[in-house]
């Protein structure tokens, strides 16, 4: 069995064992009361159990802490087991308020999973993590995340992306995207070049420090391709628990660029963001193939089919909506399965055929 298949089998067994009974959801499109859902978990490489679905705060509420708070409250009360946050989203104070509102409602029966991200080194738009100061600035950025989220510990901390080219910033046109070839950093994602690799290693050491200090239960990365992961894979280093990537049907295939199987071989869980297509959202949900598959499963929506495809590959995901009905529908992806023919048909979709690794490895 290949590494990707082994990983999928492991996650499926883990998820089934943790369902603990039927999932109670409101039928798609019917409205009704908030749902009560038990979301399965996946075990990370350090033994920590992470929910298979989170609500992402980087969607419609990004850069607006005021609108973030009620959306977080609604997501948690509806049944999402946790929140995917980031300093880059400008709304972590709103995330904290929303969690407090959910707790105050009396409807929250669990402690939410909470994950956050620190800015990549060389990124100076939000919280400066300056080249030449990657280690100390990452520690400071992490502490600011804890302060904004009003917690003393988080469940997972990620480096948000590979580093920015030294002496520049993401706001500067001269700051190359991590995968963009140029005369100085011709390698894919920059990560094989000495200077950005050194920057990543310093950031990773900072996250390791916070992990050993007991301030984050697990650490990982986001938007890292193979060269980036190879850079921080030092003999004495912790293996990232998670690599959060843009991943959805139509990229095409279930293992674009071999990146998912590369992570599986190393015990790194891939967590999908933009599982409903990102920029290809309308085309993906409007696909006749997805529509036909949704129709064969009764009252399922095309969004539910797309989410189910990702989950059935064994991958956890983060999705975002402020609409309570859509939240209910997002959570209604357990208790039924896509057939092998359904999975194969979705595997073959090529709705976003441009370089899929470029999409997966960029912020």
Helix segment count?
13
| Residues in helices, as a percent range | 25-40%
Low-confidence stretches: 10-35, 166-189
Taking strands numbered 1, 2, ... along the chain, how are they ordered across the largest sheet?
A: 3-4-5-6-7-8-9-10
What structural category arises from helix and sheet content?
alpha/beta
The major beta sheet can be summarized as: 8 strands, parallel, barrel
- Based on DSSP secondary structure assignment, what is the total number of beta strands? 10
H/E element sequence:
HEEEHEHEHEHEHEHEHHHEHHH
Strand content of the residues, in percent? 5-15%
> What is the molecular shape?
globular
Provide the gyration radius in Å. Answer: 20 Å
For the record, give the distance between the C-alpha atoms at the N and C termini, rounded to a whole number: 32 Å
Average predicted confidence as pLDDT? 83
């Amino acid at each position: 069995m290949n590494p990707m298949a082994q990983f999928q089998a492991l996650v499926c067994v883990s998820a089934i064992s943790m369902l603990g009974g039927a999932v109670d959801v409101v039928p798609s499109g019917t409205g009704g009361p908030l749902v009560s859902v038990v979301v399965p978990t996946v075990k990370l490489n350090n033994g920590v159990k992470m929910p298979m679905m989170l609500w992402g705060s980087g969607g419609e509420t990004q850069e607006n802490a005021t609108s973030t708070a009620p959306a977080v409250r609604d997501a948690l009360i509806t049944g999402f087991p946790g929140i995917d946050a980031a300093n880059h989203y400008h709304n972590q104070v709103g995330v904290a308020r929303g969690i407090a509102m959910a707790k105050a409602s009396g409807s929250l029966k669990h402690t939410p999973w909470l994950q956050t991200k620190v800015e990549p080194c060389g990124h100076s738009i939000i919280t400066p993590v300056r080249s030449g100061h990657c280690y100390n600035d990452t520690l400071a950025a992490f502490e600011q995340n804890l302060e904004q989220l009003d917690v003393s510990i988080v469940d997972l901390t990620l480096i948000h992306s590979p580093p920015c080219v030294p002496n520049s910033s993401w706001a500067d046109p001269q700051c190359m995207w991590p995968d963009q070839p140029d005369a100085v950093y011709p390698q894919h994602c920059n990560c094989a070049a000495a200077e950005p690799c050194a920057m990543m290693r310093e950031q990773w050491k900072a996250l390791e420090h916070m992990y050993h200090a007991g301030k984050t239960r697990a650490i990982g990365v986001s938007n890292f391709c193979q060269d980036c992961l190879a850079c921080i894979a030092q003999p004495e280093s912790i293996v990232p628990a998670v690599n959060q990537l843009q991943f959805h049907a139509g990229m095409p295939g279930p293992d674009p660029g071999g990146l998912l199987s590369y992570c599986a071989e190393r015990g790194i869980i891939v967590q999908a963001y933009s599982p409903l297509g990102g920029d290809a959202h309308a085309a993906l949900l409007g696909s006749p193939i997805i529509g036909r598959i949704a129709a064969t499963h009764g009252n399922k929506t095309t969004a539910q089919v797309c989410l189910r495809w990702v989950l059935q590959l064994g991958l956890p995901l983060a999705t975002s909506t402020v609409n309570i009905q859509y939240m209910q529908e997002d959570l209604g992806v357990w208790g039924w399965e896509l057939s092998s023919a359904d999975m194969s048909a979705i595997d073959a979709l090529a709705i976003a055929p441009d370089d899929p690794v470029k999409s997966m490895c960029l912020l």
